[in-house]
Amino acid sequence: MSVVLVTGSEGQLGVALEATFKARPFFVPLFCSKSMLDITDGDQIEACIKTHSVQYIINCAAYTNVQRAEQEAATCFKVNSLAVGCLAALAEKYGIVLFHISTDYVFGLTKGRPLSPNDPTDPLNQYGQSKRAGEQMVVARATHFYIIRTAWLYGEKGDNFFTKMVAWAQKGDVIEMVDDQIGSPTYVYDLATAIWEIVEKIAKNNLADYPSGIYHYTNEGVASWYDFAYAIATALPNRCAVIPRSSAAVGLKRPYYSVLNKSSFRSVFQIKIPHWQDSLSLCVTKWKNQ
Ligand SMILES: NC(=O)c1ccc[n+]([C@@H]2O[C@H](COP(=O)([O-])OP(=O)(O)OC[C@H]3O[C@@H](n4cnc5c(N)ncnc54)[C@H](OP(=O)(O)O)[C@@H]3O)[C@@H](O)[C@H]2O)c1
Questions:
Q1: Which of 58, 181, 213, 215 is the most exposed place for a label (fewest CB within 10 A)?
Q2: What CATH number is attached to the domain comprising 110?
Q3: Is the Cβ–Cβ distance between 216 and 262 less than 8 Å?
């Protein structure tokens, strides 16, 4: 059985991968948190690969604090670029298939149409630049890789937009939310399920049927942060007021339109992608039942 190493396993996506893993005859997962495996330590990663005969890596480890990255650029680049380059080189050395997660923050001020994997990138901040540099390292150093760009991840657990909204609603806060930043909310468990499906397809079939490259995955549909906040607020038992604001008034540095075009993901992997409103309903139901 092939071993699938999941790095950064205590983060939002890592936790979702653990929760959605279903026993399969083809592979076993090895979930490693930051305290177990620091991706900036190349020797530690190589030892882990050799000890466990790792054949797949799903890299969920990342520096993700977008605001703090402006002050801690060196640390951010160390994790999101240099360490990713090391992972890619080790993947190449040991014939490992590398899944690396990236972000819509690699794009800049775009033109209001869904962005394809080959569209030009132009990150607006340190986090986006570090993630783009990480992507470039993977492309340059690895042969078998899948870079999956995603956006607006949330779920019923952990620290994310949904759980923040729940906390604000419980306090009865009035929430101001930008209505001029457009993207696709993505239920982290949908992404995790899709990643496992891809690993299974690759393990069962011919790797060449699934070309290495950059792919986009978000839930279907489009929303502003205001739309998303409003949809959450109206689904919660403690309703709260959500007021639209412009980005200029709030001063956020983020792509205005980062809807990702998922055509190549759909056609290569043949995986059905749920609409964000359906996944949000599921998230609310799970949150109520937990
Ligand atoms: N969240 C989103 O909305 C979003 C959107 C687009 C793309 N993404 C991408 O999706 C991936 C997963 O994001 P996420 O939301 O799961 O992030 P997350 O919750 O911040 O998880 C990242 C995990 O990586 C760990 N980590 C940090 N430095 C590490 C290191 N040197 N070695 C090993 N682990 C390390 C973190 O540990 P500590 O917390 O202890 O530092 C954390 O457990 C990332 O690549 C991110 O860029 C996220």
A1: 213
A2: 3.40.50.720
A3: yes
